[in-house]
Amino acid sequence: xxxxxxxxxxxxxxxxxxxxxxxxxxxxxxxxxxxxxxxxxxxxxxxxxxxxxxxxxxxxxxxxxxxxxxxxxxxxxxxxxxxxxxxxxxxxxxxxxxxxxxxxxxxxxxxxxxxxxxxxxxxxxx
Length: 126
What we know:
4 strands, Thioredoxin family protein, 3 helices, Glutaredoxin, Thioredoxin-like_sf, Thioredoxin_domain, 126 residues
C-alpha cells in the first residue's frame, strides 16, 4: 500500500452505505480502482480512509486496487497519462483498461457512493 490515507477507517459504518458496498462487491472481480492521492493532502485524508473501508467491506481484491502517491506538486506515476489535476482522483477501469468513470476531489458525495452510482449507470448502459 503506497498511501497511508487508504488505510480503512475503522469507524466507517458499512451498513450506512449498504447500496454502495453491494455495487462495489458485485463488480469486485471485473473493475480496477486506480487511486491518486497524497498523505499530505487534507482532501485525501478526509475522503480516502472511508473509501478504503468501502473497498474492504466490498471485499475488492488487493490486486484490483492501485495506489499512486503524489508529491506536493501533484507529480508522480500516471499523472500525465491519466490527466490528473486534483486529488484525490479515483479512476475505475474494466479488464480492457477502459475507463468506466472517475471520481475527482470536487464531487459533493463520498467517493464510494458517487462511484457506485456511476458504475451502476455504466453497467446498465453496456
